[in-house]
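Thread amino acids onto this structure.
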């Protein structure tokens, strides 16, 4: 009789740790943003952290670990324990561009595992408000009249606005002169001074400005914050290069934990708290996808970016 009571009790004790290990998350988590605090990406990372904390009943904090165009913080997450407790909130470029432009970073296209896409930032072409170019067609006509003489600036060689312009000019058969700067602010200063004909910028940099005119946005649909600005697709060019990204985990993170995180992301993305942050960050209506669609888009983007990067000088 005693033996019949003791053995089940021992089995229950042995099973208890395994059951406890299956609970996830059982403690606080951190989301690394590899860029400085205060930007649009940081705003959305913090909104996601707040939503996940509510759903999991655990603290979720955002840690800003910037440097090397995002490579430092991203590489730190890639090297962290693949347990789902250290995550990255990053743009796709950390896996599709940085492995090429910063080969010593240790990053590869498979360094992180996609969990959910949580943002998509459109790019835009800007000119002075008093520019004679009122449409994208006007710019195209000027560029075809004087190949290689129309100038535009971007926030750097191999930046997303630069690569977006390369994709568009290739589709349009145009030859424009690119001049790199250190940020959208510097680009727009030069546009307003008349030293640049146009600027390739992140759409959010145009928010609240009346001194510039947007000729087009690169996206599949008009942005709700700029309903009067057409897409390049509407102008006849079948290109929509955007900067997208979201939550990622170390590559070896178990499938069951990815599934938990993915489901929680979907719930957070539907909340008014996160959608309000998305509106402030000038997000399109469709900014969220699950892990599968996010991974497929990353793979497609990596292939395209590799081809683009082979065609430009990086030094």
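Threaded sequence (315 positions):
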């Amino acid at each position: 009789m005693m033996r019949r009571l003791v053995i089940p009790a021992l089995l229950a004790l042995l099973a208890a740790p395994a059951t406890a290990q299956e609970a996830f998350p059982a403690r606080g988590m951190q989301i690394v943003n590899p860029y400085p605090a205060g930007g649009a990406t940081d705003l959305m990372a913090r909104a996601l952290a707040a939503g996940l904390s509510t759903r999991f009943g655990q603290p979720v904090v955002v840690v800003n670990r910037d440097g090397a165009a995002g490579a430092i913080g991203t590489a730190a997450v890639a090297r962290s324990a693949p347990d789902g407790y250290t995550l990255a909130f990053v743009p796709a470029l950390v896996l599709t561009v940085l492995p090429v432009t910063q080969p010593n970073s240790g990053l590869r296209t498979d360094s992180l595992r996609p969990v959910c896409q949580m943002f998509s930032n459109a790019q835009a072409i800007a000119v002075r408000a008093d520019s004679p170019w009122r449409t994208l067609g006007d710019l195209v006509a000027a560029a075809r009249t004087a190949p290689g003489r129309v100038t535009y600036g971007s926030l750097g060689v191999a930046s997303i606005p630069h690569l977006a312009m390369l994709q568009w000019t290739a589709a349009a058969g145009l030859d424009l002169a690119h001049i790199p700067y250190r940020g959208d602010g510097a680009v727009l200063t030069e546009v307003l001074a008349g030293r640049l004909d146009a600027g390739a910028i992140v759409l959010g940099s145009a928010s609240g400005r009346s001194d510039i005119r947007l000729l087009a946005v690169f996206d599949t649909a008009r942005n709700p914050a700029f309903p009067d600005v057409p897409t390049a697709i509407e102008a006849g060019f079948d290109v929509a290069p955007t900067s997208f990204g979201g939550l990622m985990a170390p590559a070896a993170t178990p499938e069951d934990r990815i599934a938990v995180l993915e489901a929680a992301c979907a719930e957070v993305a539907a909340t008014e708290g996160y959608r309000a942050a998305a509106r402030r960050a000038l997000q399109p209506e469709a900014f969220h996808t699950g892990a599968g669609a996010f991974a497929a888009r990353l793979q497609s983007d990596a292939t395209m970016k590799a081809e683009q990067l082979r065609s430009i000088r990086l030094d």
